[in-house]
């Protein structure tokens, strides 16, 4: 039994109970019959119509297949599927620990959860309109009034009424409001998942960038030591007259330049470390990440990934749910053109003496419908309807844009890993050739066959090649993280 059927049954029992209460209080068969007829007519009308278009998901500009990937179909959001601890595919214990800490302490994530709680409460408020409102409004007054002919009377009035109010949702305004709130709640929950996934991906990217810098710093640090050793050798040769001042100054230049490169790398690392602290919900001054020479291999993610992974993107789900919410609000705006019918009732006790307030003869009641019919409001309802339709069109455009973005990010990740793999192979060959050239030039310089300028060029080329290889390795890890995020998270 769906929720709508359950609500109809609930309304029926509310009406039956209301009729029984009226019969008990009034002992008036004709009034009871009137109430039953009135309420049953209202319930019949209530289930009759709902204004506004029924939601149907618009078509999205999705491709038939990925480039080089035949396993692709039209996507439907499946963000509810578990994402898992996808970062464990890298096999890094430090990263695993940081991801767990971020999930517990990140402030943006806590703010997103608060937004979910707000949306849940808003859905509860909208859902409460499906039920009648019952209030107890006791009062006590002492008053003086003229009964006519100059006769002034001073009296007391004690009341203990139970007031009931219920909107007969003929046009579906309340139901559409509830649909809109429920869809918005689901969208907000998907937003939370987007924030969580973005947090996890940002942390992993920052972490791998730091580890790539650690490897670069290690290489450049060792190069600084070699440059200083080379400088000492050149100084000795200069003092003994085996080389000129030009070679000495070149050696000093290379040594100082390499030290400057180390300082620049440490600066970048410090900034990334501070960013990592913020993601972990910690003050940057209280956080540090010890250097490590990471040897993580890039996980293999082939282009034949299941197409269902793209369907799990939470931002696609959020955009789709906001279309449904905006669509329901069109029905709410259309209902504003029609009368609002409320069933109001009151039953309780009223007496001029507190001692007799609860006597059976002090009982009072009233029951009847109230109708509010819009006649003139300066075009407000029409303008509001136009606004809601335009808002729906906006959500459709946002949904299609989100789908386009998801396809782009997935293609970027797939092609990025493919070409980075080719770049890595070519760079490995370049590193080996540069190392050979460095060794040959050093031997030839010691033999007096070439100038020190040849040695400097060979050393600089070798260092750049090694650093480029490390940078490609770091880019592969970062691109893998981006691809996982583009596909909506991890998978089994």
Tell me about this structure.
The protein is 62% helix and 10% strand. Mean pLDDT is 83; it is low at 70-75. It has helices at 3-26, 29-46, 93-105, 107-128, 173-239, 245-279, 314-335, 380-446, 452-486; strands at 133-136, 139-146, 152-168, 340-351, 363-372. The radius of gyration is 38 Å and the shape is elongated. 32% of the residues are buried. It has a domain at 59-132 and 188-338 and 397-486: Outer membrane efflux proteins (OEP), CATH 1.20.1600.10. With 492 residues, the protein is an alpha+beta fold. Strands 1, 2, 3, 4 and 5 form a five-stranded antiparallel beta sheet that branches. Helix 5 runs antiparallel to helix 7 (314-335), helix 5 (173-239) runs antiparallel to helix 9 and helix 7 packs antiparallel against helix 8 (380-446). The longest helix is centred in the middle third of the chain and has 67 residues, at 173-239.
Rg from C-alpha positions? Answer: 38 Å
Rounded to the nearest angstrom, the distance between the terminal CA atoms is 33 Å
Biggest β-sheet: count, sense, barrel?
Answer: 5 strands, antiparallel
What shape does the CA trace take? elongated
Quaternary structure of the protein:
single chain
In DSSP terms, counting alpha (H) and pi (I) runs of 4 or more, how many helices? 9
DSSP, total strands:
5
For the record, what CATH class of the domain at 59-132 and 188-338 and 397-486 applies? Answer: Mainly Alpha
Here the CATH topology of the domain at 59-132 and 188-338 and 397-486 equals Outer membrane efflux proteins (OEP)
In the CATH hierarchy, the architecture of the domain at 59-132 and 188-338 and 397-486 is Up-down Bundle
The overall pLDDT average reads: 83
User: CATH superfamily assignment of the domain at 59-132 and 188-338 and 397-486?
Assistant: Outer membrane efflux proteins (OEP)
* Sequence of secondary-structure elements: HHHHEEEHHHEEHH
Poorly predicted tracts of residues: 70-75
| Fraction of residues in helix | 55-70%
Structural class by SSE content: alpha+beta
Q: What is the percentage of strand-forming residues?
A: 5-15%
């Amino acid at each position: 039994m769906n929720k709508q059927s359950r609500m109809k049954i609930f309304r029926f029992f509310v009406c039956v109970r209301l009729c029984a209460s009226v019969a008990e209080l009034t002992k008036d068969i004709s009034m009871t019959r009137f109430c039953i007829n009135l309420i049953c007519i209202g319930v019949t009308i209530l289930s009759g119509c709902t204004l506004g278009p029924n939601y149907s998901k618009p078509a999205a500009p999705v491709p038939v297949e990925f480039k080089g990937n035949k396993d692709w179909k039209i996507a439907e959001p499946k963000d509810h599927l578990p994402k898992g601890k996808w970062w464990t595919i890298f096999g890094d214990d430090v990263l695993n620990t940081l991801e767990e800490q971020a999930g517990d302490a990140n402030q943006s994530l806590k703010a997103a959860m608060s937004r979910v709680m707000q949306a849940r409460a808003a859905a509860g408020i909208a859902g409460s309109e499906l039920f009648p409102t019952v209030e107890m409004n006791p009062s006590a007054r002492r008053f003086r009034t003229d009964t006519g002919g100059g006769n002034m009377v001073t009296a007391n009035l004690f009341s203990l009424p139970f007031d009931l109010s219920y909107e007969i949702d003929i046009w579906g305004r309340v139901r559409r409001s509830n649909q809109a709130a429920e869809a918005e709640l689901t969208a907000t929950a998907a937003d939370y998942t987007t924030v969580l996934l973005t947090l996890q991906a940002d942390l992993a990217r920052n972490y791998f960038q730091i580890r790539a810098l650690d490897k670069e710093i290690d290489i450049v640090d060792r190069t600084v030591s070699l440059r200083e050793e080379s400088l000492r050798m050149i100084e000795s040769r200069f003092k003994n007259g085996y080389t000129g001042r030009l070679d000495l100054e070149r050696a000093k230049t290379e040594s100082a330049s390499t030290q400057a490169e180390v300082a620049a790398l440490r600066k970048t690392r410090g900034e990334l470390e501070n960013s990592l602290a913020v993601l972990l919900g910690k003050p940057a001054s209280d956080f540090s990440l010890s250097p490590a020479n990471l040897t993580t291999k890039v996980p293999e993610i082939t282009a034949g990934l299941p197409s269902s992974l793209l369907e799990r993107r939470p931002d696609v789900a959020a955009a789709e749910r906001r279309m449904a919410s905006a669509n329901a609000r069109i029905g709410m705006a259309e209902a504003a053109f029609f009368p609002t019918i409320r069933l109001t009732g009151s039953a309780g006790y009223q007496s001029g003496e507190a001692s007799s307030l609860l006597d059976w003869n002090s009982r009072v009641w009233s029951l009847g419908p109230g109708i509010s019919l819009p006649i003139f409001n300066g075009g407000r309802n029409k303008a509001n309807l136009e606004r809601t339709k335009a808002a729906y069109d906006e959500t459709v455009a946002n949904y299609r844009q989100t789908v386009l973005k998801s396809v782009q990010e997935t293609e970027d990740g797939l092609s990025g890993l493919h070409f980075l793999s080719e770049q890595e192979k070519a760079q490995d060959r370049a590193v080996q050739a540069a190392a050979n050239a460095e060794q040959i030039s050093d031997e030839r310089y010691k033999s007096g066959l070439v100038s020190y300028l040849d040695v400097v060029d060979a050393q600089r080329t070798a260092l750049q090649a090694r650093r480029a290889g490390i940078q490609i390795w770091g880019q592969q890890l970062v691109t893998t993280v981006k691809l996982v995020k583009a596909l909506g998270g991890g998978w089994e």
